[in-house]
Amino acid sequence: MEARYNLKSPAVKRLMKEAAELKDPTDHYHAQPLEDNLFEWHFTVRGPPDSDFDGGVYHGRIVLPPEYPMKPPSIILLTANGRFEVGKKICLSISGHHPETWQPSWSIRTALLAIIGFMPTKGEGAIGSLDYTPEERRALAKKSQEFCCEACGCTMKDVLLPLKSGSDSSKADQEAKELARQISFKAEVNSSGKTIAESDLSHPFSLNDLQDNIPTTFQGATASTSYAVQNPSGESLQPPAPPVAKNTSMSPRQRRAQQQSQRRSSSSPDVIQGLQPRDNHTDHGGSAVLIVILTLALAALIFRRIYLANEYIFDFEL
Predict the structure, then answer these.
(1) What is the pLDDT of residues 79-117, one digit of tens each?
(2) Which of 158, 192, 226 marks a domain boundary?
């Protein structure tokens, strides 16, 4: 098998090391890769004592990704047990369904102990979980010893060592329970919320939050800012009054025309000032352009009226 894989690959190195460590079965678990596939392992675990799975021996597959141990494996049970679905990737915080809780320091042995520790826990609707009655699980535990895997040829009666009734056996059971508790706790922390630092970094940026943090004095200055066009002295720009030609020898008709034009020119700044936008959201440049256009149009209209009035008077005198 070594000739088929790149021995410099971190995943291959890690899996070969773990295969050597797990070569000899124990009374609680055993796992080895298939002869033709280093990335698919078959495992056997004993049901935890003092539970509905006591006396059961369960077989399954572990499919490892090429990025192992940076990414978690997928776990599939092949023996009916009443806790995990058969032939389906089960959802555990140590499996491929939860890559966010996986740690590269965990190993296949960790996964085996986690399976043993998780078996007595509630499924709670997780993917690949079952909630059989205790009677059904006990019946499946007895029947599991007759299971034989067609892929690896393992018979459950002969895979594991006889169960020891000593400190070593109780120590392994306690290790499995503690590991399941730690992994479950880590999954709950990650699913319920991140740490404070992570939450702060992942919190979406909001302009409202920024505005809430602005000092009161700065907010008041911002709120009182006027978007009307102003000159540097602070006075509003007013359009200049159009020049009116002075003539001491005007006729009464010319004087009346001049007076009317003066009244129009004196009232024109008020009209333009009234047209100035007071909305705080108006653009400065648009307001200035609008004022200039209106001023030019009004000036052209006044000059046109003066020109026509003078032309009319000139024709009348002739």
Answers:
(1) 999 999 999 999 888 888 778 889 999 999 999 999 999
(2) 192
**Bond prior to 69 in cis (omega within 30° of 0):** yes
Whether 52 and 141 have beta carbons less than 8 Å apart is answered as yes
Among residues 91, 148, 152, 154, which one is catalytic? Answer: 91
Based on the fold, state whether residues 47 and 162 are members of the same structural domain. Answer: yes
* Residue 259 pLDDT greater than 50, yes or no: yes
Instruction: Note the pTM of the prediction, 2 decimals.
Output: 0.57
**Does the annotation mark 149 as catalytic?**
no
Is 214 a member of any domain?
A: no
Full domain range(s) for residue 51: 2-192
CA dist., res. 314 & res. 304, Å (int): 15
Does one domain contain both 306 and 186?
A: no
Q: Which two tokens stand for residue 125?
A: 């609707």
Residue corresponding to tokens 């079965």: 25
Higher-confidence residue: 218 or 97?
97
From the list 82, 64, 72, 95, the residue with the least C-alpha distance to 180 is: 95
CATH number for the domain harbouring residue 43: 3.10.110.10
Distance of alpha carbon 237 from alpha carbon 256, whole angstroms: 30
Same domain assignment for residues 167 and 77:
yes
